[in-house]
Q: What sequence folds into this?
């Protein structure tokens, strides 16, 4: 990205403030390459995530509804989860789709990726497109997972993403990326 | 949201694992209302954020380019920031737009909001639309902020959001919400 007069900050020492099963909060030193000033910033280190846009042969999108602890409420989202260490994003997407919804098969490809929050997080969310997805086996939920699988017509799902029925930013961003491929 | 057989989890005691200027990580007890099982989950408590879609009289969108510490790289985004305690989202949007870009004026309204990540975060990101935004005063950056203001035609910005030039999920989601209002 061309940046004109903007200066990079050089990353220095870091220390872990807290480490949990799903994230690590770090205090990281950065030095402004132009001014030489040194500051400490908080960064959340998280594994890359994957979200899956699974479209059935009759153009229905597969969604999951589940209780979310951050919002303390139910949420309607694309299937997805954390990519395991060394795991390929496409393989992770196929795995999460199968585990959470029982859907699989079809034509699979990587659609793209976004940064969930480059200001404070260091990870990417990858989007996997599964065209022609069908029920193909048993679900396999993590302990404590409890998921309601819902399919809805693509046009309806896109409308939900624009009207607040779907409110998870990563689901919305993924649906926008997918919609962009349809318009071309 | 109708949820069929999904059970809510009841929130219990919580303790702070780490607290910084921009976030607080909490370990929160939840009890499954159906099974009665009790589990501890990690939640990131963050203030609500605001992003601004500022469109000039000649249909250019105002963007900001800046170094981001999470991604350790430059990022092209909608202007925005944290909403202060008790501050109205629209007022916060107008303030952030002025501070970061010097743009202001025009017709201002709340466009909508998303949840940045309901799985692990408890906040919302609000979107403020400013139609007819013009350069209207001095910028006022926070210490350590260094911003390049860029305007680009709306169609170009929407294409950037779909092609990875813009990769911040919250900017992408906001542009999708805005695009939805144009299509109606």
A:
């Amino acid at each position: 990205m061309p940046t004109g007069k903007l200066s990079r900050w050089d990353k220095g020492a870091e220390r872990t403030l807290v480490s949990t099963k799903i994230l690590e909060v770090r205090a990281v030193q950065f030095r402004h390459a132009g001014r030489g000033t040194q500051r400490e910033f908080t960064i959340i280190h998280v594994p890359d995530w994957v979200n899956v846009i699974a479209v059935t042969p009759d153009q229905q999108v597969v969604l999951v509804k589940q209780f979310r602890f951050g919002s303390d409420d139910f949420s309607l989202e694309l299937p997805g989860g954390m990519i395991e260490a060394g795991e390929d994003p496409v393989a992770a997407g196929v795995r999460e789709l199968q585990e959470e919804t029982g859907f699989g098969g079809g034509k699979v490809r990587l659609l793209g990726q976004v940064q969930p929050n480059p200001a404070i997080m260091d990870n990417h969310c990858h989007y996997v497109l599964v065209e022609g997805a069908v029920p193909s086996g048993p679900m396999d939920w993590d302990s404590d997972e409890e998921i309601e699988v819902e399919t809805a017509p693509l046009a309806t799902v896109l409308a939900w993403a624009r009207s607040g029925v779907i409110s998870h930013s990563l689901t919305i961003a993924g649906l926008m990326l997918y919609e962009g491929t349809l318009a071309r």
